[in-house]
Amino acid sequence: MLPQEVIRKKRDKQKLTMEEIVGFVDGVANWSVSDGQIAALCMAIYLNDLDIEEIVHFINAVLDTGMVLDWNVMDLDGPVVDAMSTGGVGDKVDIISAPILAACGAYVPMITGPGILFTGGTLDKVEAVPNYQTNISNADFKKTVKNTGLGIIGPTSQLTSAEKRVYAIREMSVTVI
Asked: What is the mean pLDDT of the chain?
């Protein structure tokens, strides 16, 4: 799979296969795909959209670029959920909904990205809180979620490593929806 073929296909409004998406995202994670190629695919997607099947494949491919934390072994007394917004101006939905979900007995482990244009993303907002740490070990993240019901951290080299690059490039290439 050549990255430029994936970019060309989406540029030409064609549907990407799971194999093409997984191959591209793996290239993002292992740095065999350049920043320019990521920006080009982001622009092609911005202009031509992904259908629901492509979105699911893309999300799963990004998730698979890192280790998956197993919350089942934590003996939690409530559901493990995610509070997710699609970003955009203000990007304020999950900063409010996550604590509400935790207050209702859910456990909300969030790995969120930085910088959504000039307003900042969820990660930028929590990093503005004095002494809040967004770059902690997996063990400390799990302990925080278990003790408080909520944890918000950024992508790491271990967790969703491709996401960190894509988030940064989406902002630089102005391809945030």
From this structure: 87
Q: What would the two tokens of residue 76 be?
A: 């939690």
Asked if residue 174 has pLDDT above 90, the reply is no
pTM of the predicted model, to two decimals? Answer: 0.73
Q: Could you tell me which residue, 16 or 96, shows the higher pLDDT?
A: 16
Question: Is the domain defined by 72-153 classed in CATH 3.40.50.2000?
Answer: no
Could you tell me the residue ranges of all domains in the chain? 3-64+161-169, 72-153
Q: Which of 38, 21, 1 has the alpha carbon at shortest distance from 165? A: 38
Residue partners of 17: CB distance under 8 A and separation at least 6: none
DSSP assigned state of 14: P
Cα 79 to Cα 7, 110, 138, 161: the distances in Å are 39, 14, 19, 25
Give the Å distances, CA to CA, from 5 to 2, 8, 20, 22, 173. 5, 5, 9, 14, 20
Domain spanning 3-64+161-169 has what CATH number? Answer: 1.20.970.10
